[in-house]
Amino acid sequence: MALNALANLAEARMGDLPTSTPVSRDAKTRPGATMKALAWYGKHDLRLIDAPVPAISHPKDAIIRVTGTTVCGSDLHLLHGDIIQLVKGDILGHEYMGIVEEVGSEVKGIKVGDTVVAAFNIGCGECEYCKKGIFTECDTTNNSALMQAMYGHKLGGILGYGHFGGGFAGGQAEYVRQPFADVNLLPIPADVPAEKALYLSDVVGTAYHAVVCSGAKEGETVGIWGLGPIGLHVAQWLRKKTKVARIIAVDNVPERMEIAKTWGVESINFDVDTDVVAKIQELVPGGLDRSIDCAAFRYAKSMLHKVQRAIGLETDTPEIVNECIRATKKFGTVALIADYAATTNGFLIGAVMEKGISLIGCGQAPVQRYWKDLLRDIQSGLFDPTKIVTHRFPFEQIVDVYDRFDKKEAGIIKVFLQTKFSPPPTPGTPPLTDVKNVKLKDADFSGQTEKKV
Predict the structure, then answer these.
(1) What SS3 class is residue 256?
(2) What are the tens digits of pLDDT across the range 399-426?
(3) What is the CATH number of domain 207-361?
(4) Which helix (H) or strand (E) holds 378?
(5) How far apart, in whole angstroms, are the C-alpha atoms of residue 392 and residue 342?
(6) What is the value of pTM for the model shown?
(7) Cβ(162)–Cβ(85) under 8 Å?
């Protein structure tokens, strides 16, 4: 709370930086037209509202009619008010797909009627970083002077992630204005169902990016902290593509560990084995070759860090990172794909130096860099995003979906939220369900079983 107050004061003093495309508060809307959208009004205060339908506001824009969206684990940071520069009424959501309804005059590669998936981040395609394929570090699409002051540089814009991410309306809505359509939209072929295409927007590419950044190699032993959607996809990429010898995962949600088991993942339940590092050293004498943190800054374990976070002495807990450092062998690698926001206390810096640990900040994943290759992996059957899709809910129930996902209830891991524009469920994927009636035993894991590799 203290950090947010300071952030608001700093924002008022610094103002906004210029961007190469209008942010949402400066963008156009269709006169008299409204849509359903999820908006943030405060900590644990999300509302489904009637919002103006966006219109073309820049020659490189497209307007997308949303046919599928979802809730990401990082959206929960917004629910908890842990991301600074959130403004009441901000439309959330950074994973969506849909049908192109309108394009700007300078859009060349995307046409009306295309089925597309959007990148969660906004790259301009023309700056130094975009030309290198590092679209998430775009120099021109984020107006947050506060981020630049805090980090020394600002990242690219992010859909639906508040004004720290540039102030762009997100994809948990019936329509989205997509800036720089040619850069940030991927046409989806007819043979790829919506339930497989949607997650190319973020989690599929983000998980793959984490594996790439970790440097994991065939034959190695890799640890994963957190078996949410990112962690589970990391496990699948490690097993199917990188072909590591052994994967050790740390979590406490039985149904998530059960899915990971289908890829030959050994799991440590940290509620049972409270000394995680000791358990890993027992299982893997000498330590892990690589560790990948897929959890996040919110998961404080000790009372010390819970108190420090509560009173604003730190924003992020170092406990999971410290476990990774201690469990990784000398001159091994620790990769952070989990979200970390600002500052932490008690970070084990001595072990990083003395053990020769390579600590890699993966950054936000430039999913556009990997899109075409990962789409081919999905088409070939090598990788299946639906392995972790447990439920399909109506978009109108999104507030309740956030609540139950946050509480890790009813076996919810990854959801497909259908709008009034969505096609019917693809056979073999979860049917439409009322989230209020879902119980743990209703979670469908029938499609998850496969032989260990």
Answers:
(1) helix
(2) 999 999 999 888 899 999 999 999 999 9
(3) 3.40.50.720
(4) helix 367-380
(5) 34
(6) 0.93
(7) yes
Residue 41 burial (CB < 10 Å; 0-12/13-18/19+)?
A: middle
Assess whether pLDDT exceeds 50 at residue 365: yes
Q: What is the pLDDT of residues 7-32, one digit of tens each?
A: 555 555 567 899 999 999 999 999 99
CB 209 within 8 A of CB 234: no
Radius of gyration of the chain (CA): 21
Q: Which of 257, 307, 279 is nearest to 408 (CA)?
A: 257
Tokens of 156: 């690219």
Write down the residue that tokens 């963008």 correspond to. 27
Side chain identity, residue 422: S
Query: How many CA atoms, within 13 angstroms, populate the side-chain half-sphere of residue 75?
Result: 33
Q: What is the pLDDT of residues 424-447, one digit of tens each?
A: 999 999 999 999 988 754 444 433
Domain boundaries, the chain: 1-202+365-453, 207-361
Q: How far is CA 452 from the centre of its chain?
A: 27
Question: What CATH number labels 1-202+365-453?
Answer: 3.90.180.10
Amino acid identity at 65:
R
Q: Which residues pair with 121 in a beta bridge?
A: 158
